[in-house]
Task: structure prediction
Amino acid sequence: MEPVCYLEDLFVDPGARGAGVGGALIRDLADLGRTCGWKRLYWHTRADNKAARRLYDHFTEADGFVRYTLVLR
Ligand SMILES: CC(C)(COP(=O)(O)OP(=O)(O)OC[C@H]1O[C@@H](n2cnc3c(N)ncnc32)[C@H](O)[C@@H]1OP(=O)(O)O)[C@@H](O)C(=O)NCCC(=O)NCCS
Result:
């Protein structure tokens, strides 16, 4: 079975945003995954997170999945 990577909560210090850090982190992780033979890299964001989506849209299109969360307590 080929490994896949889930990127949880990309976060760049507010003082460093807009300078390419977030993009560099994704590129570095993708390069690591290619080197290690991972099948894919995926992550979630809120539909209305405009800053994040502008960055992510440079890499690939959103895949259309919708998350459902059932609160249990
Ligand atoms: C979302 C977040 C991680 C982005 O990090 P960042 O370091 O500011 O992002 P970057 O500087 O790499 O990207 C900013 C710009 O460079 C562009 N860019 C980045 N990588 C690129 C690439 N490979 N090719 C072309 N353009 C690229 C982005 O599209 C964006 O351009 P624009 O704003 O001029 O349209 C950051 O804003 C953050 O930490 N936000 C709060 C936490 C959050 O919401 N995280 C996301 C949770 S899913």
